[in-house]
Each structure stands twice: as structure tokens, then as C-alpha cells.
Amino acid sequence: MTRVLLTGFAPFEGESLNPSWQAVRAAAAEPPAGIEASAVELPCVYGASIAVLRAAIEEVRPEIVVCVGQAGGRPDITVERLAVNVDDARIPDASGAEPIDEAIVPGGPAAYFSTLPIKACVAAVRAAGLPASVSNTAGTFVCNHVFYGLAHLIATELPGVRGGFVHVPYAPEQVVDRSQPSLPSEAVTRALHEIALTAARTRTDIRVAGGATH
């Protein structure tokens, strides 16, 4: 059994739900064979989100951590390549904080790469009949903040842990009155199962094109 910690976010910016938490909770409730999964909901708050993540890692002691967040407007499951050491808020977090050009870890590396097999994860989700791609930016909001915080913990304190970040589209009920792409929670849950299984089974990523021209 591979211990996997899945994290999602609480709703933010006036939303009544967050599809990341919906899918993470369902994925951990009925994990695929070979996976022992736990789920934790993170606040959409700079600083506090990393503290809750650290506490969950200390409690669960996972081998793999997959943090998940909402990327409204994206049409597919996007597996993030790297986290950057900057908070730059276009909107306030759930506590009202709006940091601008602040380092997440003062003196830390400019960026960290995911330690998950990102391209193999994308391939597995696509093989399951769901849309997926590699993403080269996790933004500069709380999602990137958590991704960088996780990567820094792994690099400095948790060398036996692998982890990364996945962005998911809106849920259908979030786009009833706006023209935006969405994916049902059941589809996102299946994608997370594929990502968890692939991460557990794959140490060396596949070598296929996954870049972007802009």
C-alpha cells in the first residue's frame, strides 16, 4: 500500500464550493487498489494553508502528496510542472490578505520542479478518457503558495516524500450562469485516482512533448 495525502481547498471569492475539495474528498473515500489515501481541506489563505498542510503531513506521514486546486477557465486537468517563490495576489485570499511580490520562503530557490511524474500522470488521465495536459504555471495565488511550500518541505525536510500540484476546472454547478468550461466531480475524482496510481508506480517520467510556445 502506498500512503497518499490529497489536499483540496475551501471555497473562495464568494463561491459556495470548491471542486478541488469535492474531488479530493471523494477520491480519498474510495481509493483505488494499492492506495491508502487521506484527504485534508486547506484554507485559501496565505501562510495558514502551508501550516495546515505541514500538520497533515506530520499526521499522515505520506509517501506521496498531491495538492489540488481550482483553476477556473481551464478546460482540463492540468498537472503543474513548477512552483515559483512569489506571492502576488490579484484578488484577496479568504482572510483578505493581498501580498504583492513577496517571497514565500525568503532566501529560498526561485522555483522548484514537481517531484511527481507529471507527463506520465497526464498520459494516464488521457488514457482514462479525460482531458489533461502539463501546465507550466501554477499562478501566483494560494495554489502556487501551497505548491512551493510543499516543494520546499520536501527539499529541506522530507527527502523520502514526492509531491506536486494539480489544477482542476470549475464544477458544472459553478458555471450555470457563465460561459466557462467545467468537468463533473466524478470525472475529476477518476483523474485523481489515475494520478495517484501513476505516481505510486512511476519513478522515472516518460519522455514526451509537454511544453508550450507561450
From TrEMBL:
<dbReference type="InterPro" id="IPR016125">
    <property type="entry name" value="Peptidase_C15-like"/>
</dbReference>
<dbReference type="InterPro" id="IPR029762">
    <property type="entry name" value="PGP-I_bact-type"/>
</dbReference>
<feature type="active site">
    <location>
        <position position="143"/>
    </location>
</feature>
<comment type="function">
    <text>Removes 5-oxoproline from various penultimate amino acid residues except L-proline.</text>
</comment>
<comment type="subunit">
    <text>Homotetramer.</text>
</comment>
<protein>
    <recommendedName>
        <fullName>Pyrrolidone-carboxylate peptidase</fullName>
        <ecNumber>3.4.19.3</ecNumber>
    </recommendedName>
</protein>
<dbReference type="GO" id="GO:0016920">
    <property type="term" value="F:pyroglutamyl-peptidase activity"/>
</dbReference>
<feature type="active site">
    <location>
        <position position="167"/>
    </location>
</feature>
<dbReference type="InterPro" id="IPR000816">
    <property type="entry name" value="Peptidase_C15"/>
</dbReference>
<feature type="active site">
    <location>
        <position position="80"/>
    </location>
</feature>
<dbReference type="GO" id="GO:0006508">
    <property type="term" value="P:proteolysis"/>
</dbReference>
<dbReference type="InterPro" id="IPR033693">
    <property type="entry name" value="PGPEP1_Glu_AS"/>
</dbReference>
<dbReference type="Pfam" id="PF01470">
    <property type="entry name" value="Peptidase_C15"/>
</dbReference>
<dbReference type="InterPro" id="IPR036440">
    <property type="entry name" value="Peptidase_C15-like_sf"/>
</dbReference>
<keyword id="KW-0788">Thiol protease</keyword>
<dbReference type="GO" id="GO:0005829">
    <property type="term" value="C:cytosol"/>
</dbReference>
<comment type="similarity">
    <text>Belongs to the peptidase C15 family.</text>
</comment>
<keyword id="KW-0963">Cytoplasm</keyword>
<keyword id="KW-0378">Hydrolase</keyword>
<dbReference type="InterPro" id="IPR033694">
    <property type="entry name" value="PGPEP1_Cys_AS"/>
</dbReference>
<keyword id="KW-0645">Protease</keyword>
